[in-house]
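Researcher: Re-running this chain for the archive, since the previous output was lost when a drive failed. Same request as before.
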Amino acid sequence: MGGTEHAATAPARPEDAGTEHLTVTRTGATLVLTLDRPEAKNALSLPMLVGLHDGWLAADADDGIRSIVLTGAGGSFCAGMDLKALAGGGMTGEAYRERLRADPDLHWKAMLRHHRPRKPVIAAVEGHCVAGGTEILQGTDIRVAGEGATFGLYEVRRGLFPIGGSTVRLARQIPRTHALEMLLTGRPYPAPEAARIGLIGHVVPDGTALEKALEIAERINACGPLAVEAVKASVYETAELTEADGLAAELARGWPIFDTADAKEGSRAFAEKRPPVFRRA
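Model: Regenerated structure tokens:
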């Protein structure tokens, strides 16, 4: 997967992103994408998928944005595919169908299956994060959940296949025995159990996941953006390499960072006992 799929129809500015089912807001240097279909527990729709796709690209295109938070409205994260619409042979938002025809991979990029933003992505989960919601979650970098959140891959219970990447990625992110149990039983996982097996990193009081995610984002935003993006890229691109190849790739990715003006500013600020002012240079 890479972060280079920039469709010609994607917006250049974050304020141009967003649809009736995907709200885009900005908090400092963090872009917040909110799945906004609470009456359906934020089940996936075409407007939501198009909004997500455009939001990822808009965040990467704006150098003023240093992190992304993905969350859901109305006390839920995402309940996955709209099964009622699927059973009826369609999904809401037919006006967006042309976007999907123009880019048949748009929905996969939206779900972070075929696309990895270069900016760090933090998930702030409340309530339901199941099926497609858990699949999208696997494409995020840091994960925070309210203690009442529920996770799981329910597809096999409906005779379906979790084709958003879970049979490939899940066993690379959590121990294989837990991955296979989640995939093959389709059972729900409460947030404390999801944290215990390593699917999420933080469990916080209900209603505070977004607050915690923004706190983490602020810490990231205070760091050198070129360094942050290079570190993220290195982690993913070396994940399946041998140690020797990975170390070589890390050196190629990381060494140029030391020659940047931001690296010099970071050292100077440390010596002068002041916060650094990074300029992405």
